Structure formats: C-alpha cells, structure tokens
Amino acid sequence: MTFTRRALLEGAGALSAQVLLSRRVQALTTAQANPGKLTALPGALDLTLTALSSNILRISISPSNDAPRPAELGMVIEQGKDLDGPGRAHPGSIPWGKYSLKISADPLHVAAYEGHKLRQEIRFDLDSTDVRFNITGPVFGLGEGVHPFDRRGTRDDMLNGEHSPDLQTFGARLPIPWVISPEGWGVFIGQPSGSFDFTQTEARFRGNEATSTRNVYLLLGDTPAAVLRAYADLTGHPHLPPLWAFGYQQSHRTLESGMPGFFCTS
C-alpha cells in the first residue's frame, strides 16, 4: 500500500509501525572513550528496532533519560502495535517478515539476514556519533549535485548550497543522507546531520553534534527498484506536476529558447 503526501494531509492514513525489540545498552563514559573523538552522553542507552513495513526497519538509539525520536522530518510514520516492551532482548534472531535480525555488542551491531545471507549490518560506536555499514559494491545517493555517482572512494561533508567550480556542470548541492546499493539495500540516517566517508570497506557517518540520539532506517528489497519504492513509501510519493511545468526541464537541456518549450508543453 502506498500513500501520497496529499492523502496524509487529508488524514487518509500512514505507515504503521511494530516495535520488534526495545533494549538498554551501556555506553562508554567520557574517560573510557578515545581522546579527541566526539563523545555521546555517557551511561545507559535505549535501543529500539521498529518495523515500519516488511522491508523498512527503523533503528533508534537514545539516552535512557530521553525518549527516542518517533519520526523524522518528512517521514511518513505512525506508531503501531508494540510487539515487545523494555527488557531483555529475545534470544537468537528476531523475525522481521522474510528477514531476521541479530544483535551483538562491543560494538553494537544490528545485522539483517535473509535466510543465511547477510543483507546489511549497521554498527554504532557508543562512545561517539559514528554509524557504520557495509559496502561491497557500488553505492549511490546523497542528494542532488553529487559526483561521481558511485560514492566509493569519496568523502562528503553534506554541505548545502551553490559551490564552484561544480555549480555550472552539476548544479547546486542539495544533500540527502540516503544511499542505495544495486545489491538491494538502502540506508537513511536521520537528524542531526553529519558527513559521510566511503574511502574504506565500510561506510562511515559522523554526526556534527555530540549526541547519542539517532534514527537509522534500513530498507531492503529484491531489486533496487523495490528499495526505491520502499524509500518512496517512507518519505512520500511525489505528485505529477502539470504538463506546462515541464517546460524548464525540456528547455534547460535540449531547447534553445523558451518558445519551443512553450509549444512542447501546450
């Protein structure tokens, strides 16, 4: 089932969520953390795994004295039935549709499996703001104006704006903390913002703020198209603009003046 932004504004419905696991983990104190690293608040952290659909998982971490963010700006999310309350984690794997989840500590790992095949693993550094995940092939995303398209071997500070000398060729930089792989997975990292590093065998996100409160969304699918559809389910499906509004896109790249574009869209 899909929902448009207009339908949501009209109260037609939203994605329902199911809490698969709620668990408390222990973060390192500042004295235990490595010097020079951004440190999160020391003490206990609450970890919550929430199934927003059969292939969209929200991984939430927050200090035990602060509630996790129930949603991110622009996300189509609604609280649903709780499958598990605070307490000890279930032994073994946690079922999530046709996938299963396994959690381990030191550092904190949340791994998603399809049968015996590892689909993706999200790792959290509890003494810093870092979030890491596997990259074993091309990865794309991070918003408009990015180049090269395959992000492997690059770093991105996710700065919004019109930057030279890339502006004339690639346009303005409009960063989105979303990456997708042809292997059938995508990762969206919620607020606060930060930077991405794809120069190693794992991708690393480092937040700009020293906070342990974070939502990470893991999207899985049999094909990249299925992952993109899940992303649209998560963020909302766009409306088709009126035909006359496509004149700029046509004339910007292919037509020499606005008059031919007018006739093309009339």
CATH architecture: Sandwich
Number of strands: 15
CATH class descriptor:
Mainly Beta
CATH H-level homologous superfamily name? glycosyl hydrolase (family 31)
What structural class do you assign from the helix and strand content? mainly beta
Order of helices and strands: HEEEEEEEEEEHEEEEEHHH
Number of domains: 1
User: Which spans of ≥5 residues are poorly predicted at pLDDT below 50?
Assistant: 1-15, 28-42, 80-91
Taking the alpha carbons of the first and last residues, their distance comes to 34 Å
Strand order of the largest sheet: 4-5-6-7-8-14-13-10
Oligomer: single chain
Calculate Rg over CA atoms: 20 Å
Mean of all residue-level pLDDT scores: 75
Shape: globular
Query: What composes the largest sheet?
Result: 8 strands, antiparallel
Helix content: 10-25%
CATH topology category name: Immunoglobulin-like
**Helical segment tally?**
5
List the helices and strands and how they pair.
Layout: H1 5-9, E1 18-27, E2 43-51, E3 56-63, E4 94-96, E5 99-104, E6 108-114, E7 117-124, E8 130-134, E9 140-144, E10 155-156, H2 167-170, E11 174-181, E12 185-189, E13 194-197, E14 202-207, E15 214-220, H3 224-235, H4 247-253, H5 258-265
